Amino acid sequence: MPRRSIHPIIFEDQLKFSLSDFKRYGWMSGVPQPRTLTWSRFGKVYASINVTILLDGDDTGGCLNLEYHYDGQVRSQVVDLEPVKSNLGKGIFWYMICPVTGDRCRDLLDGGGRFVSRKALIGALYQRQAMSKNTRSLNAFLDATAKYKLALDSYFKPHRKKYYREKPTLHTRRFLKLKSQMECVHNLPDLIRSGLS
């Protein structure tokens, strides 16, 4: 059996766009107009892509024309769009058809020079899957600590009702539950020390 890659593809690190982004920007109006989608980090643009959305007038289909640079070469890609009627009977949902798998998808990711669905990126992992077990448990501890601090701030807000008809409110129950969990976590080093001696 081959060895697993030391440097796997991480989903969160890939360039990604979705149809919900285009709807939010108002690009799905049906007017074929080239637009530019950019990705930036710390205020600096590191990637851009020209997108032209072509929709049929009767909402029976359409396509995305993508133009971008990859390794110094200009590339173009056509992604088909497929409408699906809503289960509520009103309106339609648009899906992109992955050029590799042929599956419907809402998001496309950069897959080595062309945009594909998640299923086409074989061996790709989420950020959390690529972490070691110790790192995941440390992150879980830090997340629990952050939740506890937020609950603590919320619990001691002025005019916060802690009890209603002599029963703890939802905020109080959450706070008490997190407090008991944090007490168990803080007692853990003592239990480990007592077990070692």
Task: Tell me what you see in this structure.
The chain has 197 residues and is an alpha+beta fold. It has helices at residues 19-25, 133-155, 170-196, and strands at residues 16-18, 35-41, 44-55, 62-70, 73-85, 92-97, 104-105, 107-110, 115-116, 163-164, 167-168. It has 2 domains: 11-120; 133-196. Helices cover 29% and strands 31% of the residues. The protein has a 6-stranded antiparallel beta sheet with strand order 2-3-4-5-6-7, with no helix packed on it. A 3-stranded antiparallel beta sheet has the order 1-8-9. A two-stranded antiparallel sheet has the order 10-11. The radius of gyration is 25 Å and the shape is extended.
Content of β-strand: 25-35%
The secondary-structure class comes to alpha+beta
How many β-strand stretches?
11
Overall number of structural domains: 2
Radius of gyration computed on alpha carbons: 25 Å
The residue ranges in which pLDDT falls below 50 over 5 or more consecutive positions are: none
The arrangement of helices and strands along the chain is EHEEEEEEEEHEEH
Compute the average pLDDT: 83
Outline the secondary-structure elements.
Blueprint: E1 16-18, H1 19-25, E2 35-41, E3 44-55, E4 62-70, E5 73-85, E6 92-97, E7 104-105, E8 107-110, E9 115-116, H2 133-155, E10 163-164, E11 167-168, H3 170-196
Antiparallel strand pairs: 1-8, 2-3, 3-4, 4-5, 5-6, 6-7, 8-9, 10-11
Helix pairs in contact: 2-3
Sum up the structure in keywords.
six-stranded antiparallel sheet; extended; alpha+beta; 3 helices; 11 strands; 29% helix
